[in-house]
Amino acid sequence: MTIVVPFDGSGLAEAALVRATEFGSVFDEDVLAVSVIPNGNREYARERDWIERDEEFDLASVVSTLHNQVTDLCPSADFRHKVVDRYAPSGTISKRLRRVARDEDASMVFLGSENAGHLVTAVSSVAGTVAAEDSYDVVIVRDRSPAKIAKLRNASSHDNPKSEFYLPN
After folding, report:
1. Beta carbons of 113 and 85 less than 8 angstroms apart
2. Does the pLDDT at position 132 exceed 70?
3. Cα torsion at 34, 126, 20, 49 (round to 10°)?
4. Burial 101-133, CB ≥16 within 10 A → b, else e
5. Has residue 102 got a pLDDT over 90?
6. Beta pairing, strands 78-84 & 30-38
7. pTM score, two decimals?
8. Taking burial as the number of CB atoms within 10 A of a residue's CB, which of 11, 40, 80, 120 is the most buried?
9. pLDDT at 158 (0 to 100)
10. In contact, 8 and 96? CB cutoff 8 Å
11. What's the CA gap between 123 and 126, in Å, rounded?
């Protein structure tokens, strides 16, 4: 089984990845960070700091940036990216994340989200839809700066990098 972490490079996604890696070492499970990228959507990429304000969208560069961020934080984590249409309809990203979690037989999904815990009300991020799936447990991470991030970066017992770089098709 695998622990899946939707990863967009945000502070909460980083925190979720670090916590997932800690759980993975305890439960002896692989960790998979998954990024879903709307191809060619400069605005989306700029909002997430994948590219600079004056920079053009380059899929290989965005994938490389996210992959490096994942392996810098947690060298033992695997990384995968999925590409969706530039103008993908609402819900496409969360559907793609749920499909990866199912295909990987995820035991847990770690979501970095400020609002996924408020499941009584509507959730505006992909986290709400991913959290609604009942085939895996969901851990919601709301603290952007767990104390162990720097420690894990510098002294991880999981320093055997195994993530392969996946170039876009």
Report:
1. no
2. no
3. 60
4. beebebbbbbbbbbebbeeeeebebbbbbbbee
5. yes
6. parallel
7. 0.76
8. 80
9. 47
10. no
11. 8
